[in-house]
From TrEMBL:
InterPro entries: Cys_rich_dom
Domain Cysteine-rich: 15-95, 145-228
Entry's Gene Ontology cellular component terms: cytosol
The name this protein goes by in its record: Fe-S oxidoreductase
An MF annotation (GO) of this entry: oxidoreductase activity
Lineage of the species this protein comes from: Bacteria, Bacillati, Chloroflexota, Dehalococcoidia, SAR202 cluster
UniProt signal peptide: none
Length: 262
């Protein structure tokens, strides 16, 4: 059920943190995120000189290389206006959950990181917290299933909220995905360092996806989207995989300002 928003001040402004994968590989996800936020009445700021949060280096054990990248992220985004919204659970988890570890020897930077982390939200988390899961009532004529990305579920605590959001879209036929909360095998560098294990995990995920009969898979992290889409293409499958920001934005575009489908 949507949360009670009566005691929460709804933000009028927010800053987009695009993430590296969105910036380099999936700009449509960033554009869709802006569409969703603007639909909710939020003015979006974008900092042109933003870069990585340091997650790839940190996850690979290169803390000395991650430190200057994370420091720059804090210096840039602590001056940003309003909440910081990122369409990525993994990037949100890095800033909120692991900057404290990264800066554990520097109390000043640790405190600054904590303040930035308090203002940073994954997209569906932001929408749920400030607007509720029923805030978007668009139209999307698809048969779909939803994959629960690891970082969203285990690090950010986003579980059924995106599914509740999608359930409000007219025309969208959602089919539950067996073992939806099990990894798709991406895991960032994991899929490169351990390709055989990654492929085995992915294979099971794709079997469950194809068993749903859905024509679309919706997920909340670009890495998962690319991992599953690549595997499906290698199987010559017609099932497509899209980011939830794209699904929500498309549903909004399918409905005009009077609420009548185009």
């Amino acid at each position: 059920m949507p949360n009670d928003k009566s005691d929460i001040s709804i933000p009028k402004h927010a800053t987009l943190f695009a993430s590296c994968m969105v910036d380099q590989l999936a700009p449509a996800v960033g554009e869709s995120t802006v569409e969703v936020l603007e639909h909710l009445g939020v003015t979006v700021q974008f900092l042109d000189d933003q870069t990585c949060c340091g997650q790839p280096a940190f996850n690979s054990g290169f803390r000395s290389e991650a430190l200057p990248v994370a420091t720059r992220f804090i210096e840039l985004f602590e001056r940003a206006e309003g909440p910081i919204v990122v369409p990525s659970g993994s990037c949100a988890a890095m800033v909120r959950n692991y900057y404290g570890d990264l800066f554990r020897g520097d109390s000043n930077m640790s405190q600054r990181a904590a303040r930035v982390g308090e203002r940073l939200f994954e997209l569906t988390e932001f929408v749920t917290k400030f607007f509720g899961t029923s805030a978007i009532s668009g139209e999307l004529n698809e048969s779909a299933t939803y994959h629960k990305c690891c970082h969203l579920l285990r690090e950010i605590g986003i579980d059924e909220q995106p599914i509740e959001m999608l359930s409000n879209l007219s025309g969208l036929d959602m089919t539950p995905l067996e073992r939806a909360d099990v990894c798709c095998g991406f895991g960032g560098a994991f899929s490169v360092k351990m390709p055989d294990i990654s492929s085995a995990i992915l294979g099971e995920k794709l079997d469950f996806i194809e068993a749903t009969g859905a024509n679309t898979v919706i997920a909340g992290d670009t890495g998962c989207v690319y991992q599953m889409q690549g595997g499906l293409r290698r199987r010559d499958s017609n099932v497509k995989v899209i980011h939830i920001a794209e699904a929500l934005a498309k549903s909004i575009r399918n409905v005009d300002s009077t609420g009548v489908s185009n």
